[in-house]
Write a structure and sequence with these properties.
- The protein is α/β, with parallel strands linked by helices and 341 residues long.
- Helix content is 35%, strand content 16%.
- It has two domains: 244 residues, Aspartate Aminotransferase, domain 2, CATH 3.40.640; 93 residues, Aspartate Aminotransferase, domain 1.
- The chain contains eleven helices and eleven strands.
- It has a seven-stranded mixed sheet with strand order 1-7-6-5-4-2-3, with helices on both faces. A four-stranded antiparallel sheet has the order 8-9-11-10.
- The N and C termini lie far apart (59 Å).
Amino acid sequence: MRELVREHIKSLIPYQSARSEFEGEADVYLDANENPYDFQFNRYPDPYQRKLKKRLADVRGWNVDQLFFGNGSDEIIDLLVRTFCEPNKDAILTCKPGFSMYQFSAELNQARNDEFELSSDFEIDADAFIKVIKPEHKLIFICSPNNPTGNAIPIKTIKQVVDKAPGLVVVDEAYVDFSEIGSCLKEIDSKKLVVLQTFSKSFGSAGIRLGVGIMDQEIVAILNAVKLPYNVSESTQVLATQLLDKYDKVIDSVLMIKKERQRVSNQLIKLDVVLKVFPSDANFLLVKFDKAKEIYIHFMDNGVIVRDRSNLLHCEGCLRITIGLRKENNRLLSLLKRFDK
């Protein structure tokens, strides 16, 4: 993978933090100019999050050496672009409509973002997609299940892209736990594959800001050299470990959300004001409305916030609705029924 890395980063000497050269527990810490009085988080965190990686690897069945944590998946996306894309030379390839953070990171790092238009039912034509791949596409981003459309991309399609890509294929699986298809990790074994997941969705912990990348060990080592030394706080590591200790409750919440997703979808399609409810493998529904703008304002006026996606390709008149608690979903449905009269 080093041949894909920007030249000046290949010779980058990683910042050596106070804790990066030490593993285990010591009796006395006098190395990092910390306050010795225990205010719960008076010590710097493990810069490589070793305990948390081991716990997550045990729960998910992953290789601990292939894990990289970031301050949300957003940080990992930015690090990948910053590490592999030479400014004003290299490019990324993304799908449209898709998650806007890929384009933002490309613009921030002066990399070109080439967009491939999804079909009207938000699918990727694999042959057409492969034809637009260029040598300068160091990173190809595929969001599956896709945001804001909700559909999962077939693993067969992703494998075809991985086989033909000149650089890394980054599959963003933020919503994968809500999908029946499951992770592409179970079927694709390639050093060019990077999979992103997050604690923000199925783990119900958007506030702790923790994303995880599963990738070849060589890429982990490269990103460890580029990242800020303490990119994941001690409080985040502690809270994430506690979540993993009650993983059965996480699974239960996912099952309830999937059940509610089906119920809300069934109720929505009964309403005259609803033109289409798109199939979803995520924890949200993309819904095409008659008078979408008016409905969006109607929701806001009554204290219910959804996301207007009608300005995106193939999403005219569409609102993205997150699946909430049953009582929250009932509130939304009740407001729609009042509007529908």
